[in-house]
Amino acid sequence: DAGVIQSPRHEVTEMGQEVTLRCKPISGHDYLFWYRQTMMRGLELLIYFNNNVPIDDSGMPEDRFSAKMPNASFSTLKIQPSEPRDSAVYFCASSLRRGVGGYTFGSGTRLTVV
Amino acid sequence: AQSVTQLDSQVPVFEEAPVELRCNYSSSVSVYLFWYVQYPNQGLQLLLKYLSGSTLVESINGFEAEFNKSQTSFHLRKPSVHISDTAEYFCAVHTGGYQKVTFGIGTKLQVIP
Fold first, then answer.
1. How far is the C-alpha of A108 from the C-alpha of A1, rounded, in Å?
2. Interface residue B7 vs chain A (CB under 8 A)
3. Cα–chain-centroid distance for residue A74?
4. Nearest-angstrom CA–CA distance, B24 and B86
5. What residues of A are in the B interface, CB distance below 8 Å?
6. Backbone phi, psi, residue A70, to 5°
7. Whole-angstrom Cα distance, residue A48 to residue A33?
8. Suppose A42 and one of B8, B18, B105, B111 were both cysteines; which one would form an S-S bond, judging by CB atoms 3.0 to 4.6 Å apart?
9. What's the start-to-end Cα distance of chain A, in Å?
10. Long-range pairs, A52-57, Cβ under 8 A, ≥24
11. pLDDT digits (tens, 9 = 90+) for B24-73
12. Which residues pair with A32 in a beta bridge?
């Protein structure tokens, strides 16, 4: 398996623009997580899905953020409109069995909003 | 609720010296414990995990961690570090009743030649 695949690796956009981050989890994993990592706040859980259904989105910072998982092999995280404070590295991770065995992370998307 | 405390934000250590990265957790139920490593510009990778059984767990690259229930700790150790161990290390806790992991803030290990 190629692991968790995220795209793009880097994204630079202007304030106010829409940004879409993409994630392909490991085949067969039934949990998918979106995290944001910054120097100031560390690793923050934004939202997670189980069998394509959002379970907990309490970490989504505000209504500008939305996430979908239309099928077991694809998820998106959208920011509309983007703001400079959204600049961070966004990670997707997937797991089996509620993550008891650990998570597999993607390589991340480094987002810069100017 | 569960929480994780990593006591050191940065740990400099000379090459071939031993190192210990400290991690304490709090939880009212049984826990699963993890250490992840993040190399520059990469995602987190699972280094080792404690699920049950032996309280001493090892990774393939010489790290080990010991689950100490009485002290609620899961410290990571290596007897002799290499330059390639320079990375950020995250301790994490998972309780069976929750469906998500809580991560610590991370400890940056800098190995000095």
1. 17
2. no
3. 11
4. 22
5. 4, 31, 33, 42-43, 45, 48, 50, 55-56, 91, 93, 98-108
6. -70, -25
7. 4
8. B105
9. 36
10. A55/B99, A56/B99, A56/B100
11. 998 777 788 999 999 998 999 999 999 888 888 889 889 999 999 899 99
12. A49, A94
Go through A8-28 and write b for each residue having 16 or more CB atoms within 10 A of its CB, e for each that does not: eeebebeeeeebebbbbbbee
List of residues 6+ apart from A66 with CB closer than 8 A: A60, A77, A78, A80
Measured between alpha carbons, how far is B108 from B113 in angstroms, rounded to an integer?
Answer: 16
B9 close contact with A: CB closer than 8 A: no
Exposure of B32 by Cβ count < 10 A (0-12 exposed, 13-18 middle, 19+ buried)?
buried
Contact B99 A108 (CB under 8 A): no
Contact B47, B38 (CB under 8 A): no
Res B30: pLDDT: 78
Q: Which residues, listed in sequence order, are joined to residue A49 by a DSSP beta bridge?
A: A32, A54
In chain B, the N- to C-terminal Cα span, in Å, equals 41
Joined together, the tokens standing for residue A38 give 């910054």
How do beta strands B107-112 and B10-14 pair?
parallel
d(CA B48, CA B64): 8
User: pLDDT over 70 for what percent of chain A?
Assistant: 98
